[in-house]
Amino acid sequence: MTEPLFFPLPTALSLSDIVALSGARALTDLPEGDLLVRGVSTLVDAGPGDLAFFDTPRFRDDFRATRASVCITTPKLGAEAPAGVVVLASDRPAHAFAAVTRRLFPTALRPQPVFGHSGIAPGAFIHPTARLEDGVTVDPGAVIGPGVEIGADTVICANAVIGPSVRIGRDSAVGPGVSLLHALVGNRVILHAGVRIGQDGFGYQPSPRGHLKVPQIGRVVLQDDVEVGAGTSIDRGALRDTVIGEGTKIDNLVQIAHNVAVGRHCIIVSQTGISGSATLGDFVMLGGQVGVLGHITIGDGAQIAATSNVKDDVPPGVRWGGSPAKPVREWFREISTLKRLAEAGAHRQGEG
């Protein structure tokens, strides 16, 4: 069996290229000649021609032993560099490293055509009333319904389903097996494999005879630069739209219910569930497995710790955690108190 190369080897970058991309500055003397970087790696696995980064003392021993040609780190940590490593200093090493990696491996940034082609592949099903701008790529098995509009340079991967009258902006990517219905999608939006957008919201009226289904007639609006992880589901609104604000990044396996309004540049981590008609402000961060009750508001810049249950409105700019969620210091005090009580009880039992 041959070993596949999923991401093509990049064009080498010079040190001056890396400095320009990362904004870092040299802490050590630059080598004579033109040192070229051809790849990126961890401190442990890096070899000649590789770029690595180092931003925490926890990995100090790995840094001292690294064989990387170039390493981006903080000014303080860079003083411990081994001989022969060119050290570039940055206040944000991981951010600087990512900027270089983006240039080296651009195809890793979003889903690529599965069929390895450009344009409309054989086996794609496109309704004659759909309108596709120049540069749109459509994989085999994709279905594009009537009245759909897709902007230039967007990729529709294999077996994706684009429902009637959906709008997709330019330079976006719809991954394999995505279903996209009743939705307006902006520019540079990324939908990873298996995302479900625009299906029914969960709406029923209970009665003695059973549950009466309520029509869901809203839409989903994904603004520019939104990214949605694999297997995530975003329901369309009941009467008003479900809206995801520009720049928001959503992890895999997240559930967002009908009528939810998510602000700009939020982070929502895996297995989080947001109930109907909840509102998130701008720059909100939700850790993994957070549950958000319906009809509440989380203010701008608030951060919610993983596995928390949010049942009340959250003020802007705070850090909450726990179940039910509360200010982090209060939550920590409760945990410490319970721990002391448990230890005291165990001690008393031991004496008895």
Please outline the helices and strands:
Blueprint: E1 13-14, H1 15-22, E2 25-26, E3 36-37, E4 39-40, E5 50-54, H2 60-65, E6 70-73, E7 86-89, H3 93-104, E8 125-126, E9 131-132, E10 137-138, E11 143-144, E12 149-150, E13 155-156, E14 161-162, E15 167-168, E16 173-174, E17 179-180, E18 183-185, E19 190-191, E20 196-197, E21 204-207, E22 210-213, E23 220-222, E24 227-228, E25 233-234, E26 242-244, E27 249-250, E28 255-256, E29 261-262, E30 267-268, E31 273-274, E32 279-280, E33 285-286, E34 291-292, E35 297-298, E36 303-304, E37 309-310, E38 319-321, E39 326-327, H4 328-351
Parallel strand pairs: 4-5, 5-6, 6-7, 8-11, 9-12, 10-13, 11-14, 12-15, 13-16, 14-17, 15-18, 16-19, 17-20, 18-23, 19-24, 20-25, 23-26, 24-27, 25-28, 26-29, 27-30, 28-31, 29-32, 30-33, 31-34, 32-35, 33-36, 34-37, 36-38
Antiparallel strand pairs: 1-3, 2-7, 21-22, 38-39
Keywords:
single chain; 352 residues; alpha/beta; Udp-n-acetylmuramoylalanyl-d-glutamate--2,6- Diaminopimelate Ligase, Chain: A, domain 1; eleven-stranded mixed beta sheet; ten-stranded parallel beta sheet
Q: Structural class of the secondary structure composition?
A: alpha/beta
> If you consult CATH, what is the topology of one domain?
Udp-n-acetylmuramoylalanyl-d-glutamate--2,6- Diaminopimelate Ligase, Chain: A, domain 1
Sheet with most strands: 11 strands, mixed
Q: What's the CATH H-level superfamily name of one domain?
A: MurE/MurF, N-terminal domain
Helix content: 10-25%
Please work out how many helical segments DSSP would assign.
Answer: 4
Low-pLDDT segments, ≥5 res: none
Radius of gyration: 25 Å
CATH architecture of one domain: 3-Layer(aba) Sandwich
Q: In total, how many beta strands?
A: 39
Note the gap between the termini.
66 Å
